[in-house]
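Exam revision sheet. Question 4 asks you to relate a sequence to its structure. Input first:
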Amino acid sequence: MNAIVEMISTGSVTDLLRVVWMEVAMASFAATVYFTFSGYVFKPDKSSKPSKGPQRSVGKTPQRESALGGYQLVTKALRQGEVGNAIDLLKKMPETIAGYVPANVAPRLLMAVAKSSDFENVMTQLCALSLNIEARSFEAAANEAATNKDKTAGRQIYAISRLMSIPMNAQMLEAFAKACASDAACLRMLIESVEAPLAKPFAKIVLEACTAIKDVDLAAEVFEKVAESDAAALRAIVEKAASQPTIASAPDSPSMRVAIEHSKAIRACGKNGDLDGAVNLFEKERKHCQNSCLDNAIMDVCVECSSPQKAIEYFNQAKDSGLADAIIYNTAVKCYLAQGKIVAAKGLLPELSEKGFALTRNTYHTFLNFFIGARNLDGAWKVVEEMQAADVQPTAVTCSMLLKGKLESRADMSKVLGLVDTIEPMDEVLFHALAEACVRTGQLQLLSKYQAKLSSQGSSPVLTAPTYGSMIKAYGQARDVKQVWTLWSDMMTQGVQPTAITLGCMVEALVSNRHIVDAWKLVQQMHKEESTKSLVNIVIYSTIIKGFANAKETDKVMALYEEMKSEQIQPNNITFNTILNAFAHGGAMHRVPALLEDMKRSNPPAEPDIITYSTLVKGYCNSGGLDRALDILKDMQSEGKLAPDEVMYNSLLDGCAKEQRPNEALKLLDDMKKTGVKPSNYTLSMIVKLMGRCRRLSQAFSIIEEISSQYGLKVNIQVYTCLIQACFNNRQALKAVSLHDKIIKEGLLPDEMLYSALVKGCLNAGLVDKAVHLAKCAHGLTASKFRGTPPGINARVLDELVSALGGRQSRDAQALLAEISASKNGNSTSCNYDNTSSKDRAATPPWRQ
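Answer key, structure tokens:
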């Protein structure tokens, strides 16, 4: 049986039928033997009545015959064009009751529905079954349509896949592109449904079709969405196809051809944002041609041009004229939801039912997508509940949409996983969404579980490169380098060709985990292979350069840069800025002039941006070259193309503090005011640090007062810490202590660093009693309590305080330590301490430098 399933998964409808007829023969033989030896004679059910219609009634066969010949009866009904009876029979089959159409029946069923003269009604019946038809069945049916050059069937099968929300894999896209090769409208829908970059085989098929039907606009859209690495080869294919004679295929009917051409023109206006032009075309052609595809086109254009209300007007016109089909109703639902009119959108659902259009998964998914986009998970779950209540079972697409709803909590994730576990089989689109959700919620153990489930499915396809990329990225963020390499090796063993994005994920995972040399070796290996050479791009090189730069390995940065030049990989601004940052961190500013010359000589020349100038300024300030940094500021201002920002001014002020040059710092402050750059607390911290070192304490206080008043800037705890240290450095201990009371009065939250600075400063100034009092304040042991959990002081300063009290054996020291110990155990003064200073500390405050 496994062999049969394997044949079905790869064969065409013709191949599938051979298997089906083999089963028919075997079953017939078994039935003959059974009836002969058992003596059983079939007697028709007396209650059954002959059908009055042209179709033969087969719905009430006895249980034994139904069990024995269910597939045969369905196949026979389909062969005779009795699609309705076939669907009725399917309802009673065990596999159908379990929720899916058997793979040996599904392709023929799809083809029969597509070719039915009553397509809309039959399709509605099919969608109402809420069955899971596997993607491979759609692929087989589409390939059969392509082989028979039956574009009508191909278009109808594609319409069924959209209504049933079937996820598209690469093979399906290629099959539909072949089936609809002469149908520009269907090809356009295919292109619009796929995100860039397009897979090269799929793009090739569409471009060849564009050449045959002479659709230049569609070909241009394809080239907009293909990867740069594929563009040249695809152009060559188009040129070759264009040089060969083509045979135009006849349209289905003159009226349909006219409608499609006009729909195409209307949509073209929409692509250009020309709503008025689209409306004029529609109004003109509707007088001569009444067809729902025109109404669909104008409604889509209204949506694309952000005019959902106008789309609703056309919907009402189509409804009045009897042209409103299920697709038009679904578009109207989207329009109402785009305007936030949920009640109006839901009001269309009863109308759909009254007109005989069943509520499909696509309808429910429209509502689901709206609630997920609005971050309303409660609303999304209500839609799922309504689906289940209507016997429309969630599919892999439903779960994928929920997983992409930015689930943050494990509870939400568990709820979705409850649905995921009911989906059989799991497809790769669902797994891809699941992988991203596992990363967001920190549940990578689930990723391994569902990867094993996907791999264990006998009919499951090999994972694609994007899915491998997502998994590699996830395990890289979890710092599981071993699993990262396992996934990469598995991908190569399975013969899956990595994309530039997959390689980028792999390199990023290695670099972020400090396996930079391994990343470099991998890139070199990929560049040597002709099949993967094109994947190695500037982004990947820049990632490795950044890794070496952060590790301060300047020599390796330069080696990699030279390798890029030898391989003729043109660096961009990001690359040059990353290399300059490596010079700044690694103390290699002497290399800067040569690199700047390379920027000028690059083709096209890489123009320095604000990041370039900021990096240069920071590098020169760090290496003691303040004058050179100031010259760069002047050069940039004289060119007039770029304006300095706060980051650049702060780097220059930091350089002034290191070289103790207060006059230049004050000039920079004035320059900031003139250019409209608002100082921050970080700016104030460096000014205070500089003025304290230069014995200009009073000026530090006045600058703080002036800037905080002028810009409405609330001085934070880090600035006060710098000011306290400046007071002690200028032998103004009591002034430093008085700042503590001011801080408490302003409602700020002193941290451990501030109290440690106060206690240590008092000890150095011989104010032991003040130091003891402040230590008690730090542990919440005094009357002057503040909001939050007492931060305490660091262990080293506490040891110094104990030593100043006479050592741990002294009575005073023991009493203080006992109080501190009791406060830590009881901590009765704790009340929601919010350490708001942590964000500022991430920027490496000046007092830690």
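Marking note for examiners. Residues 315 and 372 are 25 Å apart (CA to CA).
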